[in-house]
């Protein structure tokens, strides 16, 4: 027997009036029926009384954390306005799409059907993010190229790179100092180290360098 796919229910009303509590309970009840009809296993349910224009919602943050951790595959809401309104809705739709979450709604009696306008906006956001990623990678390559032009030899320093990339933030301070002496900015040094497998920011490099200078006089 195949395991059921995990689902999370998210219910929201816009005001904190006591009368709205009945609406939250009704939303949950109806969404549990949708889960049952689609053979989904509800692993959690979040109910909130907050504006759909605001992203500052604790329950919403919890749902996003679970989505990021791949803890569920389907999000159940009564309609897309329960998720959010305006720009907040678009931002959230994009995040859940990015995490591979399928959204089911009561109004659609199944998977959410987006309007043509919403589809277009999400496509634009996706393209912008893709080009931002490409631009970031090009900046790293540029930093590496500048470092090599100034005498840095990355093939001699690869042995220093952390195996997992994220494991430790022990940066190669000798290389940082050498690159700094060659005239590279902290931003260029950070890009160079990123290219070698280190994940560090300009501020982190600067902090390590200042500590090194203080220690070695």
Account of the protein in words:
The chain is built from eight helices and five strands, in the order βαβαβααββαααα. The protein is α/β, with parallel strands linked by helices. It has a five-stranded mixed beta sheet with strand order 2-1-3-4-5, with helices on both faces. The longest helix is centred in the middle third of the chain and has 34 residues, at 116-149. The model is unreliable at 158-168 (pLDDT under 50).
Number of strands: 5
Give the class from helix and strand content and strand pairing. Answer: alpha/beta
What are the segments in which pLDDT stays under 50 over at least 5 consecutive residues?
158-168
Biggest sheet overview? 5 strands, mixed
Provide the fold topology.
Elements lengths: L4 E9 L6 H18 L2 E10 L8 H11 L5 E4 L2 H4 L2 H13 L3 E4 L4 E2 L4 H34 L23 H9 L4 H10 L6 H15 L1
Parallel strand pairs: 1-2, 1-3, 3-4
Antiparallel strand pairs: 4-5
Brief overview:
It is built from eight helices and five strands; from the N terminus they run E-H-E-H-E-H-H-E-E-H-H-H-H. It is α/β, with parallel strands linked by helices and 217 residues long.
Keywords:
13% strand; alpha/beta; 217 residues; single chain
């Amino acid at each position: 027997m195949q395991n059921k796919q995990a689902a999370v229910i998210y219910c929201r009303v816009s005001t904190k009036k006591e009368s709205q509590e009945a609406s939250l309970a009704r939303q949950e009840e109806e969404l549990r029926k949708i889960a049952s009809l689609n053979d989904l296993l509800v692993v959690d349910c979040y109910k909130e009384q907050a504006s759909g224009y605001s992203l500052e919602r604790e329950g919403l943050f919890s749902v996003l954390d679970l989505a990021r951790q791949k803890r569920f595959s389907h999000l159940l809401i009564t309609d897309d306005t329960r998720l959010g309104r305006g720009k907040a809705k678009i931002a959230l739709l994009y995040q859940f799409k990015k995490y591979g979450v399928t959204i089911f709604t009561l109004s659609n009696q199944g998977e959410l059907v987006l309007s043509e306008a919403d589809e277009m906006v999400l496509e634009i956001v996706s393209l912008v993010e893709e080009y931002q990623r490409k631009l970031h990678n090009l900046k790293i390559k540029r930093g590496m190229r500048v470092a090599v032009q100034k005498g840095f030899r990355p093939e001699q320093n690869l042995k220093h790179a952390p195996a997992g990339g994220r494991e430790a933030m022990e940066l190669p301070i000798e290389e940082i100092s050498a690159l700094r002496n060659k005239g590279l900015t902290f931003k260029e040094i950070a890009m160079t180290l990123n290219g070698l497998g280190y994940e560090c920011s300009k501020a982190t490099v600067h902090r390590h360098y200042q500590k090194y200078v203080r220690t070695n006089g």
